[in-house]
From TrEMBL:
Keyword terms, alphabetized: ATP-binding, DNA-binding, Metal-binding, Nucleotide-binding, Repressor, Transcription, Transcription regulation, Zinc, Zinc-finger
Residue ranges of every copy of the ATP-cone domain listed in the record: 46-136
Family named by the database record: Belongs to the NrdR family.
Name of this protein: Transcriptional repressor NrdR
Zinc finger annotations (unnamed) as residue ranges: 3-34
Pfam family, one: ATP-cone
Organism: Cellulomonas oligotrophica
Reported function: Negatively regulates transcription of bacterial ribonucleotide reductase nrd genes and operons by binding to NrdR-boxes.
Length: 163
């Protein structure tokens, strides 16, 4: 790491800390030549491999933009979309790979979107999973209903006697 003050080609790390969101590392460095200190922020890059084979940097904004279309007319706020995009990025980073296939991103979106809004989930899934007929919608709705019924039958930790 070059010193930003004297351009010396080396520096030593004085202190390292993980950022609040855990996505980056903040390092305090000191130049051995001029003894001045400076801070660097390091993040692991995450690349998306498109269907065409091209790669591009991962973007939370692209996630929010894609999901925003499915959420049109639904009671979903911009904060909800930002949180969903953050959850998707955390899921993808936890996989430990520097390159993620675009298809995997779509799969990572489906779970949090289903939790956020079932109608938006069906809209997104219908495009993403290329629904061809009403049968595809009916089977997706049947899965959602079965999951909801299972959740209603399972007692929550706050209500141990329910069931």
């Amino acid at each position: 790491m070059h010193c930003p003050f004297c351009r010396h080609p080396d520096s030593r790390v004085v202190d390292s800390r993980t950022s609040d969101d855990g996505a980056s590392i903040r390092r305090r460095r000191q130049c051995p030549s001029c003894n001045r200190r400076f801070t660097t922020v390091e993040t692991a890059s995450l690349s998306v491999v498109k269907r065409s084979g091209a790669t591009e940097p991962f973007s939370r904004e692209k996630i929010a933009t894609g999901v925003r279309k499915a959420c049109q007319g639904r009671p979903v706020s911009e904060d909800d979309l930002a949180l969903l995009a953050q959850k998707v990025e955390e899921t993808l980073r936890s996989a430990g790979s520097a390159e993620i296939d675009a298809y995997e991103i779509g799969l990572a979106i489906l779970g949090p979107l289903r939790d956020l809004d079932e109608v938006a989930y069906l809209r997104f899934a219908s495009v993403y999973q290329a629904f061809d007929s009403l049968d595809d919608f009916e089977s997706a709705i049947a899965v959602l209903r079965a999951e909801r019924e299972d959740a209603e039958r399972t007692p929550s930790p706050e209500e141990p006697g329910r069931g």
